[in-house]
Amino acid sequence: MKHITLIAGARPNFMKIAPIIHAIQRAQSNGIDIRFRLVHTGQHYDKKMSGDFFTELEIPEPHANLESGGGTQAEQTANIMVRFEQELLENPTDLVLVVGDVTSTMACAIVAQKLHTKVAHVEAGIRSNDWSMPEEINRLVTDAITNYFFTTSEVANQNLRANGVKNEQLFFVGNTMIDTLLKQRPNFRQPVIWKELNLKEKNYIVMTLHRPANVDEEGKLKALLDEIINNSHDLPLIFPVHPRTAKHLQDLGINHPRLHMTEPMSYLEFNYLVERAKAVVTDSGGITEETTVMGVPCMTLRDNTERPETITEGTNELIGTNPQAIAPAMEILFSGKWKTGKIPALWDGKTAERIIEKLLEL
Asked: Residues 105-110: what's their mean pLDDT?
């Protein structure tokens, strides 16, 4: 029997974990003795993570919720480690599988190794080379103590080899986030705002902003929004607001008839909007992967990215955090000259199958 403990700490982690659960379930249905335990560290409280969320993803609710959220980076890391150590002692496993780059990814990898349990990291090797981002520290630490590395691109492979990872530990498998996207694409659901605003396909822009460099300094946030509003050719701007950003927007008192700020949306509703948008303006990493697969122009308001394949191959452009960079990018968009892009290798919806096949071999 092979037993795998799957770790998720925030809502996006479950999008990456879901196809792995489905691949395990398919292996089970083929008579293979493999089992999993899904552990939610509770790193992020998300009121949208109800039973409906797990039903949408077609996965069971977590076997355990460590409820370790809140506090500073150090407090959160410590809480996760203390609680996951107890969880792992009570429920031993053959392998701890972590995904992405949240604090839970790093904390649970450390605990597992100290309890002499092997670690697999899905989405290993991606790098922004920006140590001011907590996620970059999480990536570096996790990859320093991982046994099996599952990667989304050849760039990630090169990063890991440069750090001394041996080829026999390294597996280029693709992107589990795209497994979920392709599986759920037929199920995308029209949000209420679609009819409320009488939205038309390719006739609005979707926005997301949450990174400290963009939203914590109110003057910078206002300048970014002003430039987006002034250069978006009278199109509606749909802005599901991250809780981090909401307070700053309230303090600024920003109000414009074309700027429609909403509560965060479900995965199926948000991607319904993204798929049909004229473009997306974001500072998220994961969204750039989804826009690349759906062929939607994407402007990333960051000075670096850990997903360079979305730029070199996909529909994403890194335009930086200077508000003055928005107007030229919008001009390219509205002149019809935005690049078409292509889907990166192995982003085909079969990544999780390759991961489980490889783990069964190992």
From this structure: 98
What residues act catalytically?
210
Whether residue 5 is predicted with pLDDT greater than 90 in this model: the reply is yes
Distance from C-alpha of 153 to C-alpha of 228, rounded to nearest angstrom: 31
The DSSP secondary structure of 215-260, one letter per residue, reads HTSHHHHHHHHHHHHHTSTT--EEEEPPHHHHHHHHHHT---TTEE
**Total count of domains within the chain:** 2
Determine contact, residues 274/296, Cβ cutoff 8 Å: yes
pLDDT, one tens digit per residue, over 272-297 is 999 999 999 999 999 999 999 999 99
The C-alpha atoms of residue 285 and residue 262 are separated, in whole angstroms, by 21
Residues 12 and 132 reside in one and the same domain? yes
- How far is residue 333 from each of residues 35, 43, 77, 307, measured CA to CA in Å? 48, 38, 42, 21
Q: Residue 37 region, left (φ>0) first, then alpha (ψ -120 to 50), else beta?
A: beta
Are 128 and 152 in a shared domain?
A: yes
pLDDT at 45: 65
CB 108 within 8 A of CB 141: no
115 vs 145: CA distance, rounded Å = 13
Return the pLDDT at 49.
Answer: 61
Same domain, 227 and 304: yes
For the residues of 328-359, what is the DSSP string, one character each?
A: HHHHHHHTT------PPTT-SS-HHHHHHHHH
